[in-house]
Records
---
Amino acid sequence: MQKIGFEEAVGEIRRRDSRYDPDAYAFLKDALDYSGRAKREKEGGEYPHVSGRELLFGVRDLALEEFGPMAATVLEIWGVTCSEDIGEMVFQLIEIGAFGKSEDDSPEDFGEVFS
């Protein structure tokens, strides 16, 4: 599958499905970077794979760091109300070619972790 630029990918996804605000996708990308840096600091290596569960905890931690007690409200305004929403966004980005995945990754990795 051909790689696509992130902004272009979000635009295409939003043309098909407008459930999530564009800022939610940008935040998700930042959270993936945040999670990858944290894992790299802990385990070493250059570009570690971040699992769904690791990404969810990165989303939580970064949201609390950036938005404090308003974190849940900001995410809700963006259309993100549960961990499955994060998984849906991740797999939209994978499907369109903006994110990659391992063969072990699945949408179920995001099930019922946070609400």
Note: The chain has a mean pLDDT of 91.
---
Amino acid sequence: MNYSKSALIALASASTIAMTGCGGGSSDPVDPVDPTEPVNPRADVVECTSYTIPAEKTLSGDITTCTELDSASEWTIDGLVAVKGTTLKIQPGTTIVGLPGTGDATSYMIIDIDAKIMAEGTASAPIIFRGEAGASEGEWGGLTVIGNATNDQVNPYEVNTAYGPTDFVDLADNSGVLSHVQILNSGITMAEDKEINGLSLIAVGTGTQINDITVDYSDDDGVEIWGGTVNLTNVTITNCTDDYFDVDDGFSGTVTNLNITQDTLGNAAMEMSGDTAATFEDFTIVQN
């Protein structure tokens, strides 16, 4: 079957705004700052004006300084690499290889709520994340981006609950840029209910730019989105063993030009759950 449509899909859309207030003149006292008020986790983050290219080409653990990955080197992810409080910049044409591993030794990358990724590839020089062998699904984990465009449906990251949205809400939150990025040979089940997808987006805001994304050979979902308002353009997904495109927990962004080719692998081309209201424009689903 081949479907090509321009459609608006709104499933149990729920949007509630609560406002309270009280009048008062200039003689009213000023309320003190409430120490329990949610704090913007990006407030103290310094914007990067220069970057350092690491001498060590194997990445592991936390990245906490302005770091750039150049296309002259092949980079390796060994275990969890978490970008915190800074920006990771990746040059066009760069290849990042996730080493094989299972359980807590699984190789995957998290861009945390107080960090950004600037992965701006081009059509002729895409940025490639792949497995070491580069031959099949499930060779490494995947890429996860976490933002502040959260709602009361979004929980901590199911794979690693140390990461996830705070109580601070910014629907226009900016986690950086993913452009002309290929995510290959990804997707690993670390444990029960701990499944890493090719690309995972958790409460990512509209300030983030995501376009021209390819996910091929994932041993879980190709793309899964929990909450958030981010818009995605030109997404191509093939050869996944679970769902190809999965939205949950009140995701309300627009997905333009989604292309799914489902062959013998996988469960659903698209899955939706939670009170989600997503807009899909110009999508094509081919099921063989």
Note: Residues 1-33 have pLDDT under 50 and may be disordered.
---
Amino acid sequence: AAWMEVKDASGMVTAVKVYETSKETCEPSHPAGTLLTDGKSYVKVAVTDGYLHLTSLQLPGKKRMPVADLLRGFSFEGLEIVK
């Protein structure tokens, strides 16, 4: 597993374990490191040559789960990846 840290507008940082991803190769329309979500079914991160789709994640103290399940109780909207 890999991990990342995300920060909300108040500065609170949350560590997220990343277990599964898939890659979409294309010309991204967002700067690398931008976190994107529809709030219901996907979370993806812009990278230099496309997007990295996060498909299985784990929050601190929670079990590993598919992104669609995680998004039912946790919102990635407004969060940014800590660099």
Note: DSSP finds one helix and seven strands in the chain.
